[in-house]
Design a protein that fits this description.
The chain contains 17 helices and 10 strands. It is α/β, with parallel strands linked by helices.
Length: 342
């Protein structure tokens, strides 16, 4: 009898402890601008590794078609934080909406302008996109910003090209293979998947490496980050720090493990059926991931310069770009995790 009671008491204490841990976890909703895209892998991987839970958070990842949809979710109040591209913080500053990035996981944007396989003969340069249909993840997303920047840089009127939302994953690949669009701004693994079926795939612009990014933008250009409204960041110090710790730890894990180890941790539906192509894309992408989580102020300046060049509204807004990001949470995380900034 005593043994049974003892077991019951132990079981009850475990239940109470578990309930206490569950109650201690703060619920946070993170809107992701396309979870299948390798550019957002650190956020998905943090969830898979249990880093959010270790930081005391119960994080729900909401997968959306593009960064603009993820941004709308936060501005509309259905999500707390965006896992998306930093450039939205700069663009919205021109509209007097204060957004702030607090941990950066992509050193480069990884955006690639690709010609549809059936249009290789007629489209050989960016200038040939005049009057064409070009796919982006969603209108108003970073893929759309990138396209408009390249069109204007090459002397074209961005409004003269039809922009069509095709998502980032299988839907984008299908739209390209079926010739529904003439070209598209894509990201890995979709680019590598398309190249697997079409080795002669024509790439008009690529920002997956430091060399290519410098050639396109003239400087490093930060991509994916966690950000929210400046008001939410200011009023949720503990939650922001916990999210930052989780991402910084995940970045450390990425750079201390093999691509095969990383792929093994990712959800099967994200990896897809062709593991070889996913692995090849992942190997290409790993150098893109930050080692520190810090925003390079010069990178933020480059984003502002690009938008100022392609958007009169941004150019006239007199934006203080230093208010669109903060490194204080990464600095704190560095002290608690022992990771050194490089």
């Amino acid at each position: 009898m005593r043994t049974i009671l003892g077991r019951l008491a132990t079981a009850l204490s475990v239940l109470v402890l578990t309930a206490g841990l569950a109650a201690a976890q703060t619920k946070i909703t993170v809107a992701v601008g396309g979870g299948s895209c390798l550019c957002y892998l650190p956020t998905v991987l943090a969830k898979q590794l249990g880093e959010f839970e270790k930081a005391g958070l119960a994080v729900e990842l909401v997968d959306l078609k593009g960064g603009s949809d993820a941004l709308k979710a936060v501005l509309g109040g259905s999500a707390d934080v965006v896992s998306g591209y930093f450039d939205h913080c700069v663009n919205l500053a021109a509209k007097k909406q204060e957004l702030q990035a607090f941990v950066v996981y992509d050193r480069y944007p990884g955006l690639v302008l690709v010609v549809s396989p059936s249009h290789n003969g007629e489209i050989k340069s960016i200038k040939d996109l005049a009057g064409k249909k070009v796919g982006v993840s969603a209108p108003g997303s970073s893929t759309d910003f990138f396209l408009k920047y390249l069109l204007k840089k090459n002397g074209l009127d961005p409004t003269g090209t039809a922009v069509i939302g095709v998502g980032l994953g299988a839907t984008a690949v299908a739209a390209m293979e079926q010739g529904q669009i003439d070209a598209a701004v894509m990201l890995d693994p979709s680019v590598t998947v398309l190249q697997g079926s079409h080795p002669d795939l024509r790439i008009l612009s690529d920002t997956r490496t430091q060399k290519d990014t410098l050639a396109v933008f003239g400087g490093e250009y930060p991509g994916g980050a966690l950000y929210s409204t400046a008001a939410w960041v200011a009023s949720h110090d503990k939650e922001v720090q916990a999210l930052t710790n989780a991402i910084v730890n995940t970045l450390g894990w990425i750079h201390s493990h093999s691509p095969e180890d990383i792929m093994a941790k990712m959800p099967p539906e994200v990896v897809g059926k062709n593991k070889e192509l996913y692995l090849a894309a992942l190997k290409n992408t790993i150098p893109m991931y930050s080692e520190t989580g810090k925003m390079d102020p010069k990178g933020a300046d480059a984003v502002l310069a690009v938008f100022s060049e392609s958007s009169p509204e941004v150019a006239k807004a007199n934006i203080d770009v230093s208010k669109t990001f903060t490194n204080k949470y990464v600095e704190r995380a560095k002290k608690t995790t022992g990771l050194n900034a490089k």
